[in-house]
Amino acid sequence: MIRSLVSLSVCLFGAAALLVSTPADSVSGQARRLHFSSIVADTHDDTTQRLFSSDFDLGKRNSTGHIDIPRMREGGMNVIFFSIWIDGRTMGGLAIQKALDQIDAVHQNVRKYSNDLALARTADDVRRAHDQRKIAVLMGIEGGHMLGNDIRMVRVYSDLGVRYMTLSHFYNNEWADSSTDKPAHNGLTEYGKEIVHEMNRQGMLVDISHVSDKTFYDALAVSKAPLIASHSSCRALCNHPRNMTDDMIKALAAKGGVIQINYEKSFIDQAYKDAMDQQSGGVVALMDQLKKQCGDDEACLGKKMAEQEGAATQRTKHQVWRMHRHFTSFATCSASGSFPVALAKAARDLSAAAASPLW
What confidence tens digit (pLDDT) does each residue in 154-205 have? Predict the structure, then answer.
């Protein structure tokens, strides 16, 4: 599956080159041709919780949110990783049960819309779905707390089609530190390192979005396969603890890994992030507030988060970012011009690897 992720990175770099080097009036057509001729993957999608809502239908155009089959078709999205997410303070057996419920909901929707969707586990599966003009569906576990501190769940989730796991979420779990919590383990514990090794054995990608800097470097040192950052951005451009420093991005690329940029405004716009923090007290305080208001009601959480975003947008009179600015930000993350070249080279090298394994 890493080849599909790499294809997206190459696509982004190609788009950056087109957008920077061509006149504005010719960008749209060239960008469109590049986009619709590529296999385009969204490596982190937070729609899964909406599958439990009675007023949401993945197969129909919805007036809210960003994802449904009609809009994926129109937008040229070929591959989607549905995020399996629950609050990081839910641990143990309950965390496992809630994760299994969401995985089952994804499977049910793939069966329901089998003319449009196809479950994928490998890069070959993704290409096969693309040839059949279907959208390849994969899953990522967003937070190691959903293992219930049981390494055997890596194998269970892998068997059910989960292709990556984010090592931690907003809060530390029993074996990994988060970027938005006080350090408790100095990165990965020895058990956490065993879990990374088990993920390698199962062909499950190690995702380091959300983890602390030390957890990132520990995972990078022990993993036998390239890492991914499924939804991170550049700390040099927006000082968010979930974003990656230039040194982290370079270290990720040096070992064949890829970063997928998170376009949510609080990760790419410092003024917007500051307004959000002022309004909510920071990301952890915001999650605490939402938890009190919504409990475990995922639909309520989604609605409240949308309201927070709208209020922050009003506060800063935030302007819509044009696509060329996103791509340019990605291409200039590092002060060193060698970084985009290094990552592009790593992407090309990985693209030449065997198709069937995940990496």
Answer: 999 999 999 999 999 999 999 999 999 999 999 999 999 999 999 999 999 9
CA 240 to CA 272: how far, in whole Å? 11
Q: Judge if pTM exceeds 0.90.
A: no
Residue 87, token pair as written in the block: 């609050």
Cα 265 from Cα 202, distance rounded (Å): 34
Structure tokens at 151: 């390494």
DSSP state letter for 295: T
Give the pLDDT confidence of 251-270 residue by residue, as tens digits.
999 999 999 999 889 999 99
Q: Confirm if 131 and 179 have CB atoms less than 8 A apart.
A: no
How far apart, in whole angstroms, are the C-alpha atoms of residue 333 and residue 127? 30
Burial (CB count <10 Å: 0-12, 13-18, 19+), residue 310 = exposed
3-state secondary structure at position 262: coil
Residue 336 pLDDT > 90: no
* Alpha helices, H only, 45-166: 69-75, 92-112, 123-131, 152-159
Q: What is the amino acid identity at position 309?
A: E
Q: Which of 150, 201, 202 has its CA nearest to residue 173?
A: 150
Q: And the tokens for 175?
A: 């074996």
Where are the alpha helices (H) located in 123-177, listed in sequence order? 123-131, 152-159
Domains and CATH numbers, the chain: 2-158+225-265+323-351 (3.20.20.140), 269-320 (no CATH)
